[in-house]
Q: What sequence folds into this?
């Protein structure tokens, strides 16, 4: 008899998406003539842009010839990609991040889930609610959760993002070792201003905390008063780690390429108070458990950071942003309090009935699939997320259908 890792038994199952799939399938079986529009999943729909495809193909061609073939690459990622990222995402924008502080990976999901391994199992954690569920679940797997009671784990401190605080969690009075932040937020689409993010960096300095900042949706931010990176804030280099991804930025959800920035200044401490570099530890972790992203994918990723690549991805982001604007305005016109949709592909709104009843209502009345907010945390109950990743034609049709609703 082999004993299980009991921490896994505390996980709350991926009930949400399987339940969504089950209900949609049953509806389609009973109503085969009805066209369902899916605005539920946070997956992109537009193909890779031409300069990325060209570089990807060239990368594959190189792999086909003895002289240009690549085997294992550097664990941290090829320098050509890390340099391109350091320059385009940071240095050209006046932010001091160097190529050796960037770690290439297959996804921000992996990195946000794995990063907690570097911390003691007893650390105190603050995690937003609602938020991308990986932060909670990866810490549950690691044994930090305590018990599950009333929709929450007893050992985590939840940073409430509610309609009352405009979905911007208040800075806790108490000290927490590690704080997860996600802006633009999934699912609320909410963002922080420079001043608001600065206050989090000050909190981390005051308490000796570390901020794990997920910037997976930074490409949707265009307003210069909203930071795209936590490293735009003075002092963040000592207290923050940032996760970025090409998934939503450049349509890499299936291709897989992301990157994590660990500045050399961030420190963690042994029981005896000896300081260790988080950067060195993450390097050690990655070189032990990860063997890099494939060469053609990294070559394709580097094309995102060329002038042509940047222009092309901006057009695609613009397309999704216009979808988001259209959906947001329609939801607002229905009188439902909503947020997001501007610096984010997500529109988050209060439902006129509970989340699952609203899910069935939307499916039944107008054949639109969205995501019940409860899947992102207890505060998501009574909320709903629509995603702007979709074909314009479908979005326009969805809008016409939504406008017919009343309750
Ligand atoms: N972080 C957030 C906030 C997300 O919403 C997602 C995906 O939906 C990810 C990370 C995962 O990104 P990746 O595709 O790079 O694993």
A:
């Amino acid at each position: 008899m082999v004993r299980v890792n009991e921490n896994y038994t505390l996980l709350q199952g991926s009930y949400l998406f399987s339940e969504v799939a089950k209900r949609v399938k049953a509806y389609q079986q009973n109503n085969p003539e009805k066209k369902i529009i899916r605005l539920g999943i946070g997956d992109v729909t537009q193909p890779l842009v031409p300069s990325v495809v060209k570089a990807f193909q060239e990368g594959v061609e190189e792999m086909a010839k003895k002289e240009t073939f690549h085997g294992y690459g550097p664990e941290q990622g090829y320098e050509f990609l890390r340099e391109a990222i350091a320059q385009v995402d940071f240095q050209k924008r006046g932010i001091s991040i160097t190529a050796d502080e960037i770690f290439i990976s297959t996804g921000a999901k992996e990195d946000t889930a794995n990063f907690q391994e570097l911390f003691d199992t007893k650390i105190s954690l603050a995690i937003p609610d609602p938020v991308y569920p990986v932060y909670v679940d990866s810490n549950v797997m690691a044994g930090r959760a305590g018990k599950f009671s009333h929709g929450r784990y007893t050992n985590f401190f939840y940073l409430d993002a509610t309609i009352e605080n405009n979905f911007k969690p208040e800075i806790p009075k108490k000290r927490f070792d590690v704080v997860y932040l996600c802006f633009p937020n999934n699912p609320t689409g909410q963002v922080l201003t420079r001043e608001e993010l600065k206050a989090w960096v000050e909190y981390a300095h005051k308490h000796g905390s570390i901020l794990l900042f997920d910037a997976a949706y930074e490409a949707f931010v265009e307003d210069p008063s909203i930071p795209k990176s936590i490293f735009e804030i003075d002092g963040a280099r000592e207290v923050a780690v940032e996760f970025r991804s090409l998934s939503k930025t450049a349509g890499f959800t299936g291709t897989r390429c992301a990157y994590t920035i660990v500045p050399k200044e961030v420190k963690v401490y042994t029981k005896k108070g000896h300081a260790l570099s988080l950067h060195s530890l993450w390097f050690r972790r990655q070189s032990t458990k990860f063997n890099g992203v494939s060469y053609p994918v990294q070559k394709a990723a580097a094309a995102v950071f060329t002038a042509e690549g940047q222009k092309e991805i901006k057009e695609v982001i613009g397309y999704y942003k216009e979808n988001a604007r259209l959906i947001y305005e329609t939801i607002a016109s229905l009188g439902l309090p909503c947020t997001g949709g501007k610096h984010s592909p997500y529109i988050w709104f209060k439902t006129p009935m509970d989340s699952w009843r609203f899910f069935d209502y939307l499916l039944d009345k107008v054949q639109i699939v969205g995501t019940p907010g409860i899947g992102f945390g207890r505060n998501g109950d009574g909320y709903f997320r629509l995603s702007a990743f979709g074909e314009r034609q479908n979005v326009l049709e969805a809008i016409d259908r939504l406008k017919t609703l009343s309750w």
User: Anything to note?
Assistant: The radius of gyration is 22 Å. The chain has two domains: 6-47+309-402, 53-306. The first helix runs from residue 15 to 30.
